[in-house]
Automatic annotation (TrEMBL), chain A:
SMART domains: Molybdop_Fe4S4. This is Assimilatory nitrate reductase (NADH) alpha subunit apoprotein. Keywords: 4Fe-4S, Iron, Iron-sulfur, Metal-binding, Molybdenum, Nitrate assimilation, Oxidoreductase. Residues 8-67 form the 4Fe-4S Mo/W bis-MGD-type domain. One of its GO terms (cellular component) is oxidoreductase complex. The keyword Iron applies. It comes from Marinomonas foliarum. GO terms for biological process: cellular respiration; nitrate assimilation. GO terms for molecular function: 4 iron, 4 sulfur cluster binding; metal ion binding; molybdopterin cofactor binding; oxidoreductase activity. Its cofactor is Mo-bis(molybdopterin guanine dinucleotide); [4Fe-4S] cluster.
UniProtKB/TrEMBL annotation, chain B:
Keywords: FAD, Flavoprotein. It comes from Marinomonas foliarum. Pfam families: Pyr_redox_2, Rubredoxin_C. One of its GO terms (molecular function) is oxidoreductase activity. Belongs to the FAD-dependent oxidoreductase family. InterPro entries: FAD-bd_OxRdtase, FAD/NAD-bd_sf, FAD/NAD-binding_dom, FAD/NAD-linked_Rdtase_dimer_sf, Rubredoxin_C. This is Assimilatory nitrate reductase (NADH) beta subunit.
Length: 899, 413
């Protein structure tokens, strides 16, 4: 335990990004003026054993933000905490009194800690009396939860990360783990390298970086996933690989499920037709499935974010139950969560359709049990409103106070216009956040400044049920407070002093643990009773452990269901009869393109944290839409050109990325860009509020849209020493930069030197008479480039050109407002974009070492013929490794070489 | 010393005019064909074979007398070239192939080259022939200017290359200089308005006063005939000690004309530099080819190369190519070549950094660079000149062209 002890200057903590939950070593700088030194991976953490992806590696860069929310705000004015808390509690009390408890709601986040979640859930469900506690986890894994619960009677992830390395067949469905869960992907890639016989199959409409290690990629028709597993179930019987003993002794409902599967997917050819894949490819998967007992099905948002997400999950689980491939080493249905603590939220019951500690309102005796444990004064008695329903109720005026914590629903929920209407209608919108400016804080009546990663203290649970500590090392800036503290203060102000008078966060964890064990007796999967008396010292020294951790089993539990016993009333797992179905929105003449959404490699969610790290913006600087070359040609859309996407719900402006990675008629757009980073690129504008009827999870990966090239425009680059309001731009995107402000913009065409020079008028402190302008104009290429110098220092740079250009702006940014005046060569070079002697790196591929495509191409041309060789030459790919799939594509194949 | 009229076995090449063109031709020809030719070089100035281009630098005190020679006249004489100085030719007898010098000497030639150069144009203003009105063409002109003592007021008429070089030289010597220039901007044949503005600022900083768009109305003369005042348009009178005429040059063609050679603005030559008479050639500022005359050194060197062959019966032809212009003023860098006033079908690529006195304008037509003005940083001048000369297609480098060779051809950077 000594290794995990926290010292004053360093701490072992857990990464705040994806659901892999990697251990991170955080160190304080020598003095307060210095920047936090780069973090490193925790060698002892079982999730990552010392590795970190590029996002995790860049954590230190995100600690100093110039946009921290530092004081409570009411109505746009800073106030003391005491006053803000009074305002909030008075309004909650009034609304509950006048309209009932359901007029209040929490909208939480998979990024807050388990302890924050616990007190929020307790306050709402036990004391205010509403189950309106939902969370952005609804958007990422609600379907997986319901899938597990339908099959196992509990929300239990059976597998662990080791199983990924031990399996012989890994079926990855709807997951681009190479980018979204890079460390797991690297563990898988390393295992496959060691055991080349291990098969990896990717089922995804898109050819993603994850396909790089796959033996087979099934580019299915979007949303058709369930049919594959329906057919695998049928085939398992025909192929004689059914585990009859397991089915007979440990399951119910097999016959009905099989009958439905036989009806839905009667043959391989019909299944292949349905999914629009080749019979041969499907047959390969079937063969491997038949032959491979050690099979893991690894699934993520591509499965969950669907109007039939729960059914897809159960179609997968059915196959594992039928073949007994569960509760064994290297086998099982493995849902991977997207957030650092979606699992912790599930554990405390921080969802509207849960009560607490893996108990539901419908669980017999649960309400009474929880009421007694909490000594609750006003227990909720029924499910609350799930995310989309919650915001619809808000628009209808039924929910009058909402407390949003650590999430950005103005960007992440579907149909942003509806979300805006709802928040506008809501009488009191409280937002707790680290950041002063997000699309959601802009809608708030009350802002609570929250502590962030590196300041917060508590626990998180990763995708393999492993509870790890996030440890606070840095002091809270300004008036920022922990979320649990703010919730407790409001609770106390509402009159619930005795239930919320925690002195320290470990007391909350101990209570949470005690509830999990309270009258459990092995009936509930989630039991961490071992920690119910945990002391502060023990809590501070907590090492990562997989739940359940019941009293007497401090080592936790590696794998679930090894005894074939499930948490249903009869202890048997349930098969669910599945009818594969397509997404709700269908292509039409008016909305011909199917939009799929997802992530880019180096950004996280709505960029509120990764947006602070300039190096992370280099892989993908601007919001884009991937479109097939034939579609692009037909619509006269050029690569990198501005494209307008329209759906019945709204529109978004994105840059075209012409690529064969998407199928004809399909487009893909990443979801990260908010209005803080781009004026018109919020992809959720386009998404309908279609949800899975069981999980309430939105079908965010599917919308029908129209595309058009935007005409009459010119493209531009602006680098400014001060932030600019770019109201004349049709499109702007602020690209995080090491210094100053870097904007990629699109103007209506017809810009002149005179009009461009007015861009910062009234926004910069520069005196007009002190400004010198450097000018470049080229009527042939229609380029205009302007640089403004004040006291010989660069303060503003404007490039305008009719065609989209991709200029690596790093060097230009490095010249911004530096303290020495520009050299004669630089005065010319700032209008070129690069100094004459600087190597043009091309697009950055390796973010860790900032190695670009042109450097890699050069190395390959000079004879480097392996990824390892590139690493030796340029160091690329040798740190976090998340660029390895991309690096591999630079290496010519044997066939190409022989030509 | 061999007799000037000595009979020789060798063919006789006589060159009239010992300026740069004549001296260099004599020098080069002696080296190449001295065995077969007797070369006679005739000059009207007392000093011959000097580098006229350096007069501006000499006036500005940037160089000394020792750096003036273009060719080593002593060595040439040792090698057998007859050099006649301070004795202008006054008559050519084409029929008898003889030349009469002012001293009365007569010289026989087999082949004659006229390199009589040009003189400063004299404006039709009354008093232009006054003793303190001079041109800026010869070493002795510089002598006059350098002998001016104290702080004198000098009026220079003409803001072209020569006028500005004289102005800078004189202002550096402590004189008060006013330049009259008829056009609304300086060097209007080499620069556009914006680059001329940069030049104007620079020269004004040096202390030169300018009157743009203005020519003197008249001169006021004292009883001894000297000009005492220059009268401006609005009647303003500027007191002057010296007037320098630098409003263009006129080819010196009197000798050719009197001999009966065909002339227009200058002596007409064909592409072999041959005049209307078979054994008579002309080159330099006094010749006219294809309706053009030549004031810059580069085409004249080309003419020498052509003549070097033609005179010995080899084939060669002169072709007019654009010639870059530079101003020989230390601290002022400008470069101008080709077509600098664009017509409608041309496009201008501009780079402007006014506060750094850096300006570039490229005139492009149909994928070809046809003209360039560089001010401030002229390092790329020769590259642009090459692109123009070689008619290099620049279509694929238009977006970087104005930034120079280092950007467009990184392999040479």
């Amino acid at each position: 335990m000594t290794a995990t002890m926290m010292t004053a200057t360093s701490a072992k903590t857990t990464c705040p990004y994806c659901g892999v939950g990697c251990g991170v070593n955080l160190t304080l700088p020598y003095s307060a003026n210095e920047a936090v030194p780069p973090v490193s991976g925790d060698l002892e953490h079982p999730a990552n054993f010392g590795r970190l992806c590029v996002k995790g590696s860049s954590l230190a860069q995100t600690i100093q933000s110039d946009d921290r929310l530092l004081t409570p705000m009411v109505g746009g004015h800073p106030v003391a905490w005491e006053s803000a808390i009074k305002t909030v509690s008075a309004k909650i009390a009034q609304v509950v009194k006048d309209h009932g408890p359901d007029a209040f709601a929490f909208y939480l986040s998979g990024q807050i800690l388990t302890e924050d979640y616990y007190v929020a859930n307790k306050l709402a469900k036990g004391f205010i009396g509403t189950a309106n506690v939902d969370t952005n986890s609804r958007l990422c894994m609600a379907s997986a939860v319901v899938g597990y619960k339908r099959a196992f009677g509990s929300d239990t992830v059976p597998c662990n990360y080791e199983d990924l390395e031990l399996c012989d067949l890994l079926i990855m469905v709807g997951s681009n783990a190479a980018w979204t869960h890079p460390i797991l992907y690297q563990r898988i890639a390393a295992a496959k390298k060691q055991r080349p016989n291990m098969k990896v199959v990717v089922i995804d409409p898109r050819e993603t970086a994850t396909c790089d290690i796959s033996d087979l990629h099934l580019a299915i028709k979007p949303g058709s996933d369930a049919a594959i597993f329906s057919f695998l179930l049928s085939d398992s019987v025909q192929a004689g690989i059914l585990d009859q003993g397991f089915v007979a002794n440990h399951t119910n409902g097999f016959k009905a499920a099989l009958a439905q599967a036989n009806e839905s997917t009667p043959s391989l050819s019909l299944t292949a037709d349905f999914c629009e894949v080749s019979e041969q490819d499907l047959a390969s998967l079937v063969d491997w499935w038949r032959d491979t007992a050690k099979t893991i099905t690894f699934y993520s948002q591509g499965v969950n974010q669907s109007s039939s997400g729960v059914d897809k999950c159960n179609a997968i689980i059915n196959c594992h139950l039928a073949t007994g491939r569960i509760g064994k080493e290297g086998a099982g249905p493995f849902s991977i969560t997207g957030q650092p603590n979606a699992m912790g939220g599930r554990e405390v019951g921080g969802l509207a359709n849960q009560l607490a500690a893996h108990m539901d309102f419908a669980t017999p005796g649960a309400q009474d049990l929880v009421q007694r444990f909490w000594q609750a004064s006003n227990m909720a008695t029924k499910d609350g409103l799930k995310a989309v329903d919650l915001f619809q109720a808000m628009e209808e005026g039924k929910v009058k106070v909402v407390w949003i914590m650590s999430t950005n629903p103005m960007v992440s929920l579907p149909d942003t216009a509806q979300v805006r209407r709802a928040l506008e209608k809501c009488e009191l919108v409280i937002v707790s956040d680290c950041k002063a400016h997000t699309d959601t804080t802009a809608m708030a009546d009350v802002l609570f400044p929250a502590t962030g990663w590196s300041e917060k203290d508590g626990t998180v649970t990763n995708s393999e049920r492993r509870i790890s500590r996030q440890r606070g090392l840095l002091p809270a800036p300004g008036e920022a407070k922990h979320d649990w503290w703010a919730i407790c203060e409001v609770a106390k102000s509402l009159g619930f002093q005795s239930a919320f008078s925690y002195q320290s966060v470990h007391e909350i964890f101990a209570e949470h643990a005690a509830l999990s064990a309270f009258e459990n007796n092995g009936r509930r999967d989630f039991d961490i009773g071992h920690f119910s008396q945990i002391s502060k010292a023990e809590y501070d020294a907590l090492i990562p452990v997989q739940w359940p951790v019941p009293e007497g089993r401090p080592e936790g539990t590696k794998r679930m269901f090894e005894d074939g016993r499930f948490f249903t009333s009869d202890g048997r797992a349930r098969f669910i009869a599945i009818t594969p179905s397509f997404p709700k929105s269908r292509a039409s003449q008016e909305w011909p393109f199917t939009l799929n959404t997802g992530r880019v490699r180096d950004q996280w969610h709505t960029m509120t944290r990764t947006g602070d790290a300039a190096s992370l913006a280099k892989h993908t600087a601007q919001p884009y839409v991937e479109i097939h070359p034939k579609d692009a040609k037909r619509l006269a859309i050029k690569d990198k050109a501005l494209v307008r996407l329209t759906s019945p719900y709204g529109e978004a402006l994105l840059k075209a990325k012409v690529s064969r990675a998407v199928a004809l008629g399909n487009v893909f757009a990443p979801i990260h860009w908010t209005q803080q980073f781009a004026n018109a690129s919020v992809v959720s504008n386009l998404i309908p509020q279609v949800v899975d009827p069981l999980s309430g999870q939105p079908e965010s990966k599917h919308a029908q849209v129209r595309l058009e090239a935007v005409g009459g425009i010119c493209y531009g680059l602006i680098i400014s020493a001060v932030p600019l309001v770019l109201s004349d731009c049709l499109y702007w995107c602020q690209v995080p930069s090491e210094r100053g402000y870097h904007y990629e913009v699109v103007w209506p065409s017809g810009q002149t030197q005179a009009s461009l020079k007015l861009i910062d008028v009234g926004q910069s402190q520069d005196l007009a008479e002190k400004a010198e302008w450097l000018e470049y104009s080229n009527p042939i290429t229609q380029q205009i480039r302007l640089a403004k110098l004040v006291d010989q220092k660069l303060t503003l740079l404007i490039y305008s050109h009719p065609q989209p250009e991709s200029l690596v702006a790093d060097w230009l940014i490095s010249k911004l407002a530096i303290n020495t005046s520009l050299s004669a060569q630089d005065r010319l070079a700032i209008l070129v974009g690069i100094p004459a002697n600087l190597e043009d790196k091309g697009d950055i591929v390796c973010s860790c070492y900032q190695i670009g495509s042109k450097q890699i191409e050069k190395a390959v041309t000079s004879g480097v013929c392996s990824v390892d060789g590139l690493g030796a030459r340029l160091k690329c790919g040798t740190n976090c490794g998340s660029c390895l799939p991309e690096l591999k594509r630079f290496i010519p194949t044997v066939a190409e070489l022989s030509v | 010393m061999p007799s000037l009229i000595s009979q020789s076995e060798k063919r006789r090449l006589v060159i009239v005019g010992a300026g740069m063109a004549g001296s260099k031709l004599a020098h080069d020809f002696e080296k190449a064909h001295g065995d077969e030719y007797q070369i006679v070089l005739i000059g009207e100035e007392s000093r011959v074979g000097y580098n006229r281009i350096m007069l501006s630098s000499l006036l500005a005190n940037d160089i000394s007398d020792t750096e003036m020679p273009l060719v080593d006249t002593q060595k040439m004489q040792e090698d057998g070239v007859d050099i006649v100085s301070n004795d202008p030719a006054i008559k050519v007898d084409l029929k008898n192939k003889t030349i009469l010098l002012a001293s009365g000497k007569s010289i026989i030639y087999d082949q004659l080259v006229l390199a009589t150069g040009s003189r400063a144009s004299v404006l039709p203003i009354h008093g232009s022939s006054a003793p303190n009105v001079m041109g800026f063409r010869t070493w002795s002109d510089v002598d006059v200017m350098t002998q001016l003592d104290g702080r004198r007021s000098v009026c220079i008429i003409g803001g072209g290359l020569l006028g500005l070089e004289a102005a800078v030289g004189l202002v550096k010597r402590g004189h008060k200089v006013v330049v009259f220039h008829r056009s609304s901007w300086l060097l209007n044949r080499q620069l556009d308005e914006e680059s001329a503005e940069l030049l104007l600022n620079r020269l004004e900083q040096m202390g030169i006063e300018f009157r743009l768009g203005e020519s003197p109305e008249s001169f006021l003369q004292t009883d001894d005939g000297r000009v005492s005042h220059v009268v401006c348009k609005k009647g303003e009178k500027l007191s002057v000690d010296l007037v320098v005429m630098a409003a263009g040059i006129s080819p010196e063609i009197a000798l050719a004309k009197s001999a009966g050679l065909k002339t227009d603005r200058a002596i007409l030559v064909n592409e072999q530099m041959q005049t209307s008479h078979v054994d008579v050639f002309a080159l330099g500022e006094c010749c006219e080819f294809d309706r053009q005359t030549f004031g810059l050194v580069a085409p004249i060197w080309t003419q020498i190369n052509v003549l070097m062959k033609v005179l010995v019966g080899k084939e060669a032809a002169f072709v007019v190519e654009p010639t870059p212009t530079k101003l020989k003023v230390s601290g002022v860098n400008l470069f101008s070549v080709g077509k600098i006033q664009p017509s409608e079908e041309d496009s201008c690529i501009l780079f402007k950094d006014v506060s750094a006195n850096h300006y570039r304008k490229l005139v492009v037509n149909g994928g070809l660079l046809v003209g360039a003005i560089l001010y401030g940083n002229v390092a790329d001048g020769s590259w642009y000149f090459q692109l123009i000369q070689n008619k290099t297609n620049v279509s694929n480098m238009l977006d970087l062209l104005v930034f120079g060779e280092a950007y467009c051809c990184p392999q040479v950077a």
